[in-house]
Amino acid sequence: xxxxxxxxxxxxxxxxxxxxxxxxxxxxxxxxxxxxxxxxxxxxxxxxxxxxxxxxxxxxxxxxxxxxxxxxxxxxxxxxxxxxxxxxxxxxxxxxxxxxxxxxxxxxxxxxxxxxxxxxxxxxxxxxxxxxxxxxxxxxxxxxxxxxxxxxxxxxxxxxxxxxxxxxxxxxxxxxxxxxxxxxxxxxxxxxxxxxxxxxxxxxxxxxxxxxxxxxxxxxxxxxxxxxxxxxxxxxxxxxxxxxxxxxxxxxxxxxxxxx
Length: 260
What we know:
Layout: E1 18-21, E2 29-33, H1 51-54, H2 64-75, E3 78-82, E4 104-105, E5 108-109, H3 118-145, E6 151-158, E7 161-162, E8 165-166, E9 171-174, H4 181-191, E10 198-200, H5 212-217, E11 223-229, H6 236-259
Helix pairs in contact: 2-6, 4-6
């Protein structure tokens, strides 16, 4: 399945690649969702997958679109999220990463990602990946020009079990280079919640694979990448409970960072 190289990938019937929620939000937090959407451009024919497959964790970060919306409301924060499935293109990967367009994901072959031409790949980067990254850069530049000290918070979710191994963490905080003060403060605040098992760079480790946070936060912007287990975000009630908790704890971690 190939994109017609003489035409645009996204047609008039397709959604914009970026969704901006609460653009006038006054919070110092900028919320982003690299994998919050599961749409597929019409030209790609659902990538040869069923809606059930696209709705699994391989297609998107389950619950993050709703969580981000609710958290943006509670914090009065801007939430900027990707519209399209990570199987179309993974916006948290660079062009150099082989899994930016995954031919196989968690054992599932993606027919629409097989034997792509250079033009096919370029169209997905040009029309989906780059506009999303440019929107984040533009929002940060706008805030910097206004003198707003912004903390970048990337919202992700993870499957409860991977390759037969259950994951005990309800939430994990990912961090690596740059200014990790806020991420460590958030880890401390979360560990004070008696009902949580908190992962420090678990179930994934932020490293050279990650793209969005390193691009926009390094070397000196405070940030955290948050991972929440998907079985806890499977309902509106679950998303609301996590939005309430994060709306309570994110400002506490930010205050501790400023007081350090």
